[in-house]
């Protein structure tokens, strides 16, 4: 089990603990807003489990049926998590709608807020750690899980404020109103997560800054070549695929052109500090397009 899988499994355990605390907070208060917060937390548990499964699949080596590997399994996990978030938001909206027409007082607000606040603190610390780990491992599944948990933290903060307002003002309808606002925020986050994961499945290009850095790396390490063009870069989970055409003098030997390719590949791996699959198509100088990367 690698580090990313261990992190996902840790999210399952943390999620169960937080869910239990928030469910108890709802039990002692009867607050719809706290119920909505607890409902989102159980989604965290399911999503973390899905992330763990996806990371297990993504770690399977390439085979005859999947020659490029199984890295994109992480994006399916992120899409699944986004859909779960949207469903949770719709369920909360339903509860808020019913609570608006049948408002009820909140019992033991101080105890409920203390329990919910403890759960939120645990979530916040874990989300910060998971975000750093996801970036370090370049894992879409862990990043999606961290963003979801962070959304849960902000949701909990809104719920706590809402319960305090209900207690202070005595306006019971503030409880379902806050729950509805929480649901709309969750709905937006679910849409954002699904859109980003879909971009990965559709081989969306990396950020322009990353593309330019890699092109500069090619230019600096292609001495002996003339130019590089038709550069294409995509991420698939933790793996980065890079391919381009390298123009060399027509009289250059295969051994010399291969040495240039090896040098470029090594530089790209160092630049990304990650798993890289580089494919270089060597062509003679009459194939130059004069609109690609000029070798420095």
TrEMBL record:
Per the annotation, which location comes first and is thus the protein's main one?
membrane
Under the heading SUPFAM superfamilies, the entry gives: Cation efflux protein cytoplasmic domain-like, Cation efflux protein transmembrane domain-like
The UniProt keywords, alphabetically, are: Membrane, Transmembrane, Transmembrane helix, Transport
Q: Among its keywords, does the record have Transmembrane helix?
A: yes
Give start and end of each Cation efflux protein transmembrane domain. 13-202
Spell out the family assignment given in the record's similarity comment.
Answer: Belongs to the cation diffusion facilitator (CDF) transporter (TC 2.A.4) family.
Q: What is this protein called?
A: Cation diffusion facilitator family transporter
* The organism of origin for this protein: Paracoccus albicereus
